[in-house]
Amino acid sequence: MSGNWLTTSRNWRAFVTDRARHYRIFISGNCQLQFVSDSLKYLFRGYCDIEILFRAHYQNARPGDLEAARACDVHIVQITNLEPDRWQDIVPARTSRIRVPLLQLAGIFHSFAPRAHPAHARRGAPPFYLARGNRVLHALAARYAEGGVDSDELTAEYLDYSGKEITAAPRLMEMTNQSMRRVGLHSDFDLWREIEPRLCEERLFWSVKHPTLKTEIKLLLGVLDKLELPYAAEDLAALAQGREYHEPFHGPVHPRVAAALGVAWARPDTKYRYFQNYYTVAEHAERYIRGDFADEFALNVAINDARSNRDAARTARAFKGTLPRFPAHGQVHFWYGRVLQRLEKWDQAIRLYEQALAGMKRHPHDVAHRADVTIAGVETCLKRCRRDGSDFPNFDLPRWLALDRSMPPDRRGAHEIEYGKAERL
Amino acid sequence: MPRAITREEALLETIARVIADETGAARPPRIRRGTRAGQIPGWDSLTHCRILAGLEDSLRIRIDIDRTYEFGDVGELVDYLSELASFRD
Question: Fewer CB within 10 Å: C terminus or N terminus of chain B?
Fold first, then answer.
């Protein structure tokens, strides 16, 4: 196993004896390998001689990608069942490959598969789930929209449903296990053998294609073992204790699917995160039937706009409309505060940052996600807002951020004094 | 007089209907023997199992689970389903 600085592995020897050029790692696959890519960049951040390039298998090649794929020293490629990764044909056959198994839990999540994506505007209100999703729930939502039936009644009907999606669930699970075992056989390490016996006892996936961080770390360990490059064990430990990586949306499991498969962790009171809120399967179903996810969707569009520094006035209006409906875990308050800071409404921004801090300390997210701002991040913004609101009333946050991004990583934040001086001048 | 549809045509129709069901397509896709999964929008490795489970349900057959991913195209699937259906009849 790696993690040992004294390792004399093949890749490490090749790396240290050929320092005239960089060691190039090309990674292709889905979001699971994006996690692997980001993690490797973190673990090897001290080596300026290691280049890591990730390309999602569903994306078109960008300029330079083909050359990068042809010139790589190692190709970390995801093994799937149906369509082989097209990068396999581009990377020369002589190149060293690490075949990583795709992980998916279609059996539990995909018999009733509600999925949502914040970038899809129409999914703010029914039908916002993918078309191949939950047709039973969708039909109930349509009946509610026609009027005359109470949402409680329709939710109860959903929870009592025992049609073909339920009866087929064990067979779908059997097929899933078989397909994952097959992927394992064609990969350089087989994680499914370890996962399969624990699927029903432990929550190893958030949704059909999104493993939990714990599962992803196991995938990363498999890659590191084959990659044979040295890394610091404490960096790996930091990754393992970090925040969840995949989107903060958890697929709810229908209670009858859970019962049919014996999924112990999917209880009626199990909470599933939907971006900023948590719902039981019943609450989730009722919201879908009533179309109430439109507000969550609007909020997440606003957060996305705030993160991207889009139209501040419009984003502030969106926050103002949705804020009262969201719990006080502080995330929403923080992003609203950021937008008001950009609008130079210093006092209101400071108040929201303070509310964000208080909320994050009292009611942090049960499942912290990398998209969530940290307490330290809020404290920094609050400090700057207090200072800039009093010292630099004309402080231009977007300009400051642009300047900050243009600086080398070790100087970021350090230029604010010069910037402040320039503002005063 | 209209020509009676063959067993193969009937199977192609059933497969197309199940694909539409499982991919959420508004109407069954046009498929031929040479059609491959990647040519049908929504027929990915996630939907594949659902499509096969849907075919099992529609045709009242049991697909050999070891062969789930061994059909190179729709034609190979049709041949296999045809064999199973003959055995059932």
Answer: N
Residue type, A249: F
As a whole number of Å, the CA-based R_g of chain B is 13
Contact status of B44 with chain A (Cβ, < 8 Å): yes
Pick among B27, B43, B46 to test the A interface (most A CBs inside 10 A): B46
pLDDT confidence tier of residue A94, bands split at 50, 70 and 90: very high
| A179 to B49: CB separation less than 8 angstroms, yes or no | yes
Q: What pTM was estimated for this model as a whole?
A: 0.83
Range of the domain at A88: 1-103+211-243
Residue A10 has pLDDT above 90, yes or no: no
User: Does residue A205 surpass a pLDDT of 60?
Assistant: yes
- Domain assignment present for A146: yes
Q: Is the pLDDT of residue A121 over 80?
A: no
Residues 6+ apart with CB under 8 A from A17: none
Q: What angle do CA B24, B29, B30 make, to 5 degrees?
A: 175
Is residue A91 domain-shared with residue A114, that is, in the same domain?
no
Contact in structure between A387 and A420 (CB atoms under 8 Å): no
The residue ranges of DSSP E strands in A3-49, in sequence order, are: 23-29
**Which of A171, A192, A257, A261 to probe by mutation at the B interface, max B CB count within 10 Å?**
A171
Residues of B in contact with A102 (CB under 8 A): 45
Q: Is A168–B46 a contact, with Cβ atoms under 8 angstroms apart?
A: no
For B7-88, give the CATH class: mainly alpha
- Which of chain B's residues have a Cβ under 8 Å away from the Cβ of A172? 49-50, 53
pLDDT of residue A134: 77
First to last CA, chain A: 57
* A299 confidence band (pLDDT: 50, 70, 90): confident
CB contact (8 A) between residue A176 and residue B23: no
